[in-house]
């Protein structure tokens, strides 16, 4: 077995390996009557939109635009919930908590951790890794 490939069983049954809640993807599969294409399109939109929002967040930080930053973080948090990206949600929550205190100090390192967690989730959700996961989830659907 290729060591670079995701161990599907381990990934799905032990979310600490991937910081993902695969229940959300399973629910999407059920909602779509088992259509893997539907789930893939949702995931693709999530990955594309989140990458764009992370670039906007960089701009928000440069401009010290707390309002836009809060909006973009909240948007990422919500869409991450739809795909079960737990670590991304946790970072967004930490940023939201600090922003609600009206403090931009120390936000940049948290935003950098958010980007790192997104990259980890992205690796799991890439189509080559996601297709075996969806197949695994369907076998229990």
Automatic annotation (TrEMBL):
GO terms for cellular component: cytoplasm. The keyword Phosphoprotein applies. The keyword Phosphoprotein applies. One of its GO terms (molecular function) is histidine phosphotransfer kinase activity. Keywords: Phosphoprotein. Residues 35-128 form the HPt domain. One of its GO terms (biological process) is phosphorelay signal transduction system. The modification Phosphohistidine is found at residue 74. This is Hpt domain-containing protein.
